[in-house]
Amino acid sequence: MARLVMKFGGTSVADIERIRNVARHVKREVEAGHEVAVVVSAMSGTTNKLVEWCREAAALHDAREYDAVVATGEQVTAGLLAIVLESMGINARSWQGWQLPIFTSNAHASARILDINGEELLKRFKERGEVAVISGFQGIHKDTGRVTTLGRGGSDTSAVAVAAAIRAERCDIYTDVDGVYTTDPRVVARARRLDKVAFEEMLELASLGAKVLQVRSVELGMVHNVRIFVRSSFDKPEDIDPHRNPPGTLICNEEEIVEQQVVTGIAFSKDEAQISVRRVQDKPGVAAAIFGPLAEASINVDMIVQNVSSDGKTTDLTFTVPAADYDRAKDTIEKAHKKIGYERLDGATEVAKVSVIGIGMRSHAGVAAEAFRALAERGINIRAITTSEIKFSLLIDAAFTELAVRTLHSLYGLDKA
Ligand code: ASP
Ligand code: MG
Predict the structure, then answer these.
(1) Ligand nearest to the CA of 10
(2) Which range among 35-49, 166-180, 237-251, 371-385 shows the weakest confidence by mean pLDDT?
């Protein structure tokens, strides 16, 4: 017997028929003798519509009321799933964030979970064999008692937090893909599903554009050592043997991964823009003069490359920002022109960031050098490079994204046979 969290996303609960399908997945695990807490998202499209209604009501609105509106989507699915489970003869009760409670910070619309009380759930597992159906995405602020939400995609984070609170063996994320792939299978047909990924690698993959999980859920899983299993919700519930390992990807501690590859996956993102500040004064305080105002404008700077000046007086400084912030970033730098002191501002929006990720890089030298050679052979120019312990990222022309990803995927032996 195990204790499990089963999380179902919006497409898996899109209508009553699919909710019935979800209920059959739950039934399977209950009948296998497991204690189950289910975390659900709103029906697909619902949250978007709720967000839109808020905007329509008033372009500028109070985030507390936004939360009051958008938290409702999950309330509906939790109730519906509990109804369906009961109708199938399974003891079930729905739980809103405030009922457990799931305490959060007061950063409305992007609140952080602070504490979950799982004791009542544990008691009910034991005494009544009752399935808990919990609304994802929402919580309650500790002091004000107001409803909060965790940011878009937040029900993944709810699920992992609940798993930590009830000390679950595993947090199963049922979704519309059957796992985490070495890269986007729509771009590389030979992408492989990974059996296991380490938390750290998944953090990089998730934040670099593999949109399987909310990044925060992976952070939380890493902190509390909650094993997260990404699997398909479209497999027929009856075809799955609950006592055997189903297809999917386990996100876990690196110690659990026996056969560690040097490179685990390739992520990429085209939502990048490059800004180069030409001939800035090469003196203390210049980087602060550039990046201070950007930080104040809440613009996330990613790659930063500064040349060593050849004349000792001026140098070039290049960095990337999200494409959506490109104009704002340029404006911000131009406004600080006097203070920074530079000759010219260049920019490019048709750029892409390709990242190679793998824990094995910690103990292998020359991994990046292989990439430079392979890309050069294909005539792909590298505009900027950044590295960390377990990944390196390359900025290239967006037109070469697919070619670069495919080249690197083969280079590091990730292609499926
Ligand atoms: N329903 C919320 C959203 O669409 C939360 C989630 O699905 O994870 O963002
Ligand atoms: Mg999601």
Answers:
(1) 1
(2) 237-251
